[in-house]
Amino acid sequence: MKYHVENFVTDIDKDKTVRPFIDFSKQFENRIVESVMVSIYQMVEDGEKAIKLTQFKFLFERFSETNQMERMEIKKRKLDSLNALPLIGAGIITAIVTFGVISIVGDLVNVL
Questions:
Q1: What is the percent of the chain where pLDDT is above 70?
Q2: CB of 40 closer than 8 Å to CB of 21
Q3: What is each CA distance from 21 to 29, 33, 35, 60, 92, in whole angstroms?
Q4: What is the pTM of this model?
């Protein structure tokens, strides 16, 4: 990551367009990073107007919420896959108990 940040800073010094910001955002899987980087570029170009800061804050909060929701969804899917384990265990126990009962009944029938 350090390498990418250093290249990003170098590219900003060489190229004053939005291109270095977009190129840097392509290092990330999430496409919202591109929106955040374009917003940062606009803040750099337009100055630190209050409306730009508000837009950036909104965009960054949306990015944070989306990222958090994705993490929660991944965790939920992992935990949902664990729900089958107790059912499998209960099925095995039921089969063992059934086999045991049938064995006992079979032994009683053989004795009588």
A1: 90
A2: yes
A3: 15, 10, 10, 16, 57
A4: 0.45
